[in-house]
Amino acid sequence: MTPITDVEGRRLTLTNLDKVLYPATGTTKGEVLHYYAATAAAPLLAHLDDRPVSFLRYPDGPEGQRFFTKNPPPGTPDWVRTARVQRHEGENSRQVVVQDLASLVWAANLVVEFHTPQWRADAPRMADRLVFDLDPGAPATVVECCAVGLWLRERLAADGLSAYGKTSGSKGLHLLVPLEPAPSDEVSAYAKGLALEAQNALPELVVHRMTRALRPGKVFVDFSQNAAAKTTATPYTLRARAEPTVSAPVTWEEIEGCGAPGELVFLAGDMAARLERYGDLLGPLFDADLARPLPG
């Protein structure tokens, strides 16, 4: 029998709850839904609030088919909010906005990673945060990403900006910076400039271009996710990796002290204790008093 549950007055049909999605840990779909509904719901919903969401779907687990979608999936309930999004000049589409627990559980039942832009649906293409995706090229690891992240923190501070970190949930590190809303193209240009500065200051460690041949042993400072059309893994989302890794907020002390890649890997089962200890380490992103204008 397919379970039907009530979430905040919405009837949801949940499927294949005993299906193992992460064979490495034996994590089932039911456990994934429990993580989203019981552990991550409050902070994740805050970061999803009013942001059009893109889904990386992996219904048969990370080793199965994976596909990225921005359109509302077939069968999306009429009570799930959508927002109009301009993807190309003169072309409007709609995307899901996960605004409440029922929408979150409905989306999680599809088995997805959550990805969101740096702008909100009520102010499209006006970024209220800046992001750097620090992506290591083997044999570099997140340890090298941390070194680059520390350099960027100091450089951003020189411009009056505060940075906060989270793991990508994959191999790297993300830095997020609260901003007074600014056009995405201006934020992208500023971020590109800092990526180039990082490369010039740390030429043995940093590359600011995506070209694969340039990346072995270095950290790619990806500034491109500040573009209006791009998205970044939302804080607290699970990732389609071998284990149920989380894109988890981390402290600067953890970044400074990272000496091995495994020290910054967090699984779904780790997050309840971290939230109890720290709360949402990315909470400052919502503090209007900490948002600063884009330099220049």
Automatic annotation (TrEMBL):
NCBIfam families: ligD_pol (TIGR02778). Its EC number is 6.5.1.1. It is an enzyme of class 6 (ligase). The keyword Flavoprotein does not apply. This is ATP-dependent DNA ligase. Transmembrane segments: none annotated. Gene3D superfamilies: DNA primase, PRIM domain (3.90.920.10). Residues 28-281 form the DNA ligase D polymerase domain. The keyword Chaperone does not apply. Keywords: Ligase.
